[in-house]
Amino acid sequence: MQPRNMSMSGVVDLSAVKAAGEAKQKAEQARAARASQQGDGPVAPVSLVVDVDEADFEAQVLQRSSEVPVVIDFWAEWCEPCKQLSPVLERLTREYGGRVLLAKIDADKNQMLMQQFGVQGIPAVFAVVAGQALPLFQGAAPEAQIRQTLDQLIQVSEERFGITGLQGAVAEEGAEEAARTPAQPEDPALAAAQQALDSGDLNGAIQAYKNVLSDDPGSTEARVGLAMAELLRRVQDLDAQQVRKEAADSPSDVDAQLRAADLDMAGGHVEDAFGRLVETVKRSAGDDRETARVRLLELFEVIGAEDPRVVTARSALARVLF
């Protein structure tokens, strides 16, 4: 069964969901079956966060989506933004206590699912409700935005489909302790920077990440966080319609192209942002060319050096420079 109603718009889009009556019936049947299996005994522990591949996608995602919204996190080992986003998704999933499940899919090992969902870049987050695939967002988003998205997903799942999740679910033994215990000691300065970013304090996040880098210039987490915070600050007050019109009307205006590229990146259109800036470098000279080149390098930091899109764009940049 392939995902439907896909449109990676960068926002929650639940308006296209169909067959609510059938979904409600399936949800009621699933709850009845689970209650029958459990009887009067204690609530069985469940895996709220699972690794999923193409072989078990139907059982772990499609079937379970009849009684609980399943959030899908497409990630990869080389993806630096994924390393920021995935722990937040896992922690929030356990915090929500069975109202959502999280399915983690390794993008490199599950290319068929990537194609079926139309994933253009990672991290990419979707949901499946009553067998319907829904785009949530692309890129590493602040925690406040993720929480708002999950709240809306849960509300619509219940109101439209009667899907209320695994009420009273408890995580499998050891899962909560593992979620609370970091794999390695957390850098307090880095944690403070991330907290500022999650709360929307972009100026505070930028300064905090700079402080980390002053002490540890090699910190990948700080470089990615700083690039992301600076990007979000640049686009927060932009009028998207005006910016895109100015960029279209004035292709030689470097500042206009920089603003449009930032909007592309913030909206998850990574290849468009990179392509626009490579073309700007190609058309420009002197200080304008250097400005466009530096901005492109800054956007590379947001995605991570090993991302295939960055590798491709670096090659394109080299060709226009040399």
How would you characterize the overall build of this protein?
With 322 residues, the chain is of the alpha/beta class. It folds into 2 domains: 20-178, Glutaredoxin (3-Layer(aba) Sandwich), CATH 3.40.30; 188-321, Serine Threonine Protein Phosphatase 5, Tetratricopeptide repeat. The chain contains 14 helices and 5 strands. It has a 5-stranded mixed sheet, sandwiched between helices. Strand 4 and strand 5 (132-138) form a beta hairpin. Helix 7 (188-198) runs parallel beside helix 9, helix 8 (202-215) runs antiparallel to helix 9 (220-235) and helix 12 (270-283) runs parallel beside helix 14 (308-321). The chain is globular. The relative contact order is 0.12. The model is unreliable at 1-24, 40-44 and 173-185 (pLDDT under 50). It comes from Streptomyces marispadix. This is Tetratricopeptide repeat protein.
Q: What's this entry about, in short?
A:
Pfam families: Thioredoxin (PF00085), TPR_19 (PF14559), TPR_20 (PF14561). With 322 residues, the protein is of the alpha/beta class.
